[in-house]
Amino acid sequence: MTVIARQLAISTSTVIRKLNDFRFKHD
Predict the structure, then answer these.
(1) Closest CA relative to residue 12, chosen from 20, 24, 27
(2) CA–CA gap between residue 20 and residue 2 (Å, rounded)
(3) What is the mean pLDDT of residues 4-25?
(4) CA-CA distance, 27 to 19, in Å (whole number)?
(5) What is the dihedral of CA 10, 12, 14, 19, to 10 degrees?
(6) pLDDT value at 13 more than 90
(7) CA-CA-CA-CA torsion for 16, 20, 26, 27, nearest 10 degrees?
(8) How many CA atoms lie within 13 A of 22 on its CB side?
(9) Stretch 1-24: mean pLDDT, rounded?
(10) How close are the terminal C-alpha atoms of the chain, in Å?
C-alpha cells in the first residue's frame, strides 16, 4: 500500500466515524 492510499483510507474511516457519532448524537 502506498502512503497516499493509506492516508486516504485513514481519512475515510475518520470521516465515517465522525458521521456515525453525529448521527448517534442526533437520534
Answers:
(1) 20
(2) 27
(3) 94
(4) 12
(5) -170
(6) yes
(7) 150
(8) 6
(9) 94
(10) 37
Nearest to 10 by CA among 23, 21, 24, 18: 18
Helices of type H across 1-27:
3-26
15: which 3 cell numbers?
470521516
Q: Is the pTM of this model over 0.85?
A: no
Residue keyed to cell 475515510: 12
Residue 7: all three cell numbers together: 492516508
For all residues of the chain together, what is the average pLDDT?
A: 91
